[in-house]
# Entry
Amino acid sequence: MAAFDFQQRRVLVTGAGQGIGRAIVDYLDSCNAKICAVDREPQTLNKIKQDIPSADTLCINLMDFESTATILNEYLENNEIHHLVNNAGVTRLASIGKIPLADYDFVFDVNVKSLINVTQLVVNQMVKKNIKEGSIVSISSQAGIIALQDHLVYAGSKGALNTMTKVMALELGPHNIRSNCVCPTVTNTAMAALAWPDELAKEFKAKIPLGRFAEPNEIAQPVAFLLSNLSSMITGAVIPVDGGYTAV
# Structure
């Protein structure tokens, strides 16, 4: 049984098609939320529509800022968005001195610039339509809090997101729109399985006080809490969901 009831308020989730994004979609659906799923892969959106027929799906390449604005603005004109989950993100790992220009352009375009683009589009409509008790949750990373080997560019993008979250809280508070972010550790998704082979995973888990990686639903549940009115006095928070990794 879901712990929250969104009472048919609509949540837009980017990067919704797989991994943490799909877990968030499924959990919010179980919480009686209306879903608007955004992803660049038509097949993953088709699967969401198949599993959740009531969901709206938008196929968008977030790196194309103009196309994103066109598609989202058309949708937002006709639909109220009460909550936004900025989940779409990418990573490229390399040590300093070996980082290609293309890597940091790509990571910052997706993790920072496209997130600002989407958030501005949604927030402008929230304010225009006088949405009551709106909220934003962005998916950051433990890499935005603590140094990790070979994570310079990715960590930079997530560190930027953590501070952006606080600025959004400051500027959107007068409109009664809250902004928070969660910072997961490695999460057991298909992508993580490829990035963390057994020996490397074992070594990293030994540094996590709880001794394991997170499950996708363990990220989705804090996201739902921060979106919901149960967290109505929480804004500007950067919350680790990392089994204690950044605490030691």
